[in-house]
Specification:
Layout lengths: L1 E5 L7 E2 L12 E2 L3 E2 L35 H11 L6 E3 L9 E8 L4 E6 L6 E3 L8 H17 L13 E9 L7 H4 L4 E8 L9 H15 L8 E8 L11 E7 L4 E4 L2 E4 L10 H12 L7 E5 L5 H10 L2 E6 L4 H11 L8 E6 L7 H4 L4 E4 L8 H8 L1 H14 L4 H4 L2 H4 L4 E4 L15 E6 L2 H13 L3 E9 L9 E8 L21
Helix pairs in contact: 2-4, 9-13
GO molecular function: methyltransferase activity
InterPro entries: RNA_M5U_MTase, SAM-dependent_MTases_sf, U5_MeTrfase_fam
Family: Belongs to the class I-like SAM-binding methyltransferase superfamily. RNA M5U methyltransferase family.
Length: about 500
Amino acid sequence: MTLRLVSAPPSFSVFTCRAAASTTLPSPAPTPTPVSSIPQSPPLTCALHCPHFQSCSGCTHEFNLHRPVILDDATDFFRKHGVSDFTFDTCKLWGWRCRAKLAVRGSSTDPLIGLYEEGTHNVVDIPQCKAHHPNINAAVELLRRGISELGVEPYIEDEGTGNLRYVQMAVTTYNTSLPAAERYKNGKVQVTLVWNSRNENSPGSDKLNALANFLWKNGGPRSRLHLIHSVWANFQTSTNNIIFGNKWRHLLGERDFWEHVGGIDVSLAPSSFGQANTRAFDALLRKLQKYVPHESAVADLYAGAGVIGLSLAATRKCRQDLDHSEPLKCCVSFEKTIERLPATVDSSITWHHADASKEPFLWLVGSDVVVIDPPRKGLDASLIDALKNISSVERKALSSSESSNSAQEEKRPWVLRAKEASVQIGSKPPPDNITQSVPQTLIYISCGWESFKEDCKSLLSSKAWHLEKAHGFNFFPGTQSIEVLAVFKRGPPKKKPGKKKKKHLQGALRY
């Protein structure tokens, strides 16, 4: 099984909410709830009940957290395009966010730690955020104490002065010493302090170290309440809106941050992109795996640290190439994740630091399945064009294969595009007889509903693909965002067989 990355599982409970006067949490149901069966009235048990609602820009609606209004549009869209059994999965409605980037403003005596007010750069303090994992809120309060007690100056945008610009809080629920049911509530927080200086030797570094030590002393493993996993520093002096600079420093605690999703242990650096809702992401990966045949060749585009592709390698025995264009810190996380893959994984897996939007058909050739997980803006135009013209790509690949007796690298031109930064693992080398076929299955994972609709309509307009299945996931309860998993197949949809008409016997019956 080939995997190309171009770049006991945790339980998942599904909530079915019903109207009630009580505010107790609903009981988990064992299976996903179909969209059509979700109640339409605003259930009190699925309300946000957040004191910061309407003051911060995080959540956009208070009721029906289990059923965003956008679901009506999604259900109608998929029905019109041949998918009548669209489903929607939802798990935790409160405390689901395990990763948060928060601005730090105000003063040392009255720090504001939270999100910008909609349309402004005014920071709204959100100490009791209902979306945050409870330990993020606890870590924020500990940070607030440290800022006040140590006299750390929050960043002042207009003047470019102050020490602490932002903080990233990431919760790991990976702790095999605890029963699975207890791991979530005992999650530990990796704290990244974004410091307004060029490096650790700049003025103000003494306060950075003092703040890190305060967090560790009062929230580390020897404190009364072990809350902090580790403390990192990021150095940023730019006046633009980019949160992180290019320089990182590990200060205290564990260096490696692990999570368990999709059947594998995943390493994430503070700079890595990580899903905020790890439980929902795990549910999506489990669903995705069902649509990938065992031992197929998979190209994973926009792969990041390779989580999706590596979960397929472990559970479906795929050969994979993963393509990614982000910084090479993702490669470090990829290699650490590789080290923890099950011993039974014996696949050819390569990770490329490359841009899949350039000559994208080269990444498609030789794959049975292509998985795409683009940013919110959707697919690059060049990749859409290659997918729409997949038949001509296939003819070109077959023609090239028949007319060429060149070396293996020339048969696999994607290798040439990523020589400068690729990683290959697995005891199985890539097969010598690389097939020149192109994917018959396209799996599109989307976090941007509007861009997905446009990409979907464009792909279907070519008649090269048809929609076979679609599933939605409640990654961001309290917002109008959903995550979509859509499965496309090559060619027009197959007609469902109808009932055969009985043939009428004609002629005489003889006795």
